[in-house]
Amino acid sequence: MRFGICTSTLEEAPAAKAAGWDFVEGSVQGQLQGLLPDEQWTGKRAIERSSLPVPAMNLLVPASLKISGPDADLSKLRSYMQTVTRRAKEMDVDILVFGSGGARNVPEGFDREEAKRQIAAFAKVCAESAGAAGVTIVAEALNRRECNIVNSIAEAMEYVRAVDHPNFQCLLDTYHFWLENEPLENLRAALPWIKHVHVADVEGRLAPGESKKVDYKPIFRILKQAKYNGMISVESLNFTADAYPRVLEFLKQTWQQA
User: Fold this and answer.
1) Which residues, in sequence order, are CB contacts of 236 under 8 Å at separation 6+?
2) What sections of 74-169 are H helices per DSSP?
3) How far apart are CA 256 and CA 66, in angstroms?
4) Is residue 91 within 8 Å of residue 54, measured between CB atoms?
5) Which pLDDT tens digit goes with each residue over 60-71?
6) I want to staple 130 with a disulfide (CB 3.0 to 4.6 A). Which of 35, 69, 167, 176 is the partner?
7) Which residues, 6 or more positions from 33, have their beta carbon under 8 angstroms from its beta carbon?
8) Spatial separation of the C-alpha atoms in residues 236 and 82, rounded to whole Å
9) d(CA 204, CA 35)
């Protein structure tokens, strides 16, 4: 099992490496910069300088590039995704996380069924672009405080099943999962499409083990039973370098005990 840390700038990589973490998860907006032409693409240097591998990235689509609503433009999204996936392949990024609440949020008064069709169309574009580049895009359920559509793994799986493409899969994020009170059955039903995992406590979105109020074992047990062998990234608020060793030890012990 590979454990890593989400970081928008990659500046945490040296401290994470010193603490024994395997990788850092970057940001599409920070490093792949799909809205910029190649001659202005500066994020490439940050990836090349990183002291740890950067095999995954989140923040797939900026809020300014709408996926749903009257301003959604599938041709612009297709061009954007072709750029992002091409650069991901060039930089050996394997996983791109499709959360992007600001881009997919359904505007007030807009027809929800049409929004679902727009998101499904975008998901197909994702699959096509990712397939051509040999990367995998994973759909992330976001809690209702952050986005008003695709709020559960069960809902995310509706798009995964509809697209039915090996390069468009699903993500488990424990923070959103617990905040939405999803049953463990939803996670079981999503296997084996779960190809990436984010972890954080539901209590203040702290790093695993920091709140002492969350039991990861039931979730880890399901993943182990399904022989999950992907990456697990900590996506947490207020996660500083002094906590890196103890959080990593907590994750390793919990995974072993599950």
Assistant:
1) 6, 200, 201, 205, 206, 207, 208, 210
2) 74-90, 101-104, 112-133, 153-163
3) 42
4) yes
5) 999 999 999 999
6) 167
7) 40, 41, 42, 43, 87
8) 29
9) 32
- How large is the C-alpha radius of gyration of the chain? 17
Which tokens hold the place of 246? 């103890």
Classify 230 as helix, strand or coil.
coil
Domains of the chain and any CATH numbers = 2-257 (3.20.20.150)
What pLDDT does residue 238 have?
A: 87
The rounded distance, in Å, linking the Cα atoms of 143 and 165 is: 25
Structure tokens at 202: 């539901």
Q: Between the CA of residue 172 and those of 124, 178, 199, 239, what are the distances in Å?
A: 20, 11, 8, 20
pTM of the model: 0.98
Dig out the tokens for 199 from the structure: 């972890």
Task: Give percent helix, percent strand, percent coil of the chain, each to the nearest 5.
Answer: 45, 15, 40
| Look-up of token digits 């297709």 | 78
Residue 84 has what pLDDT? Answer: 98
Structure tokens at 148: 């008003």
Nearest by Cα to 104 from 92, 88, 115, 91: 115
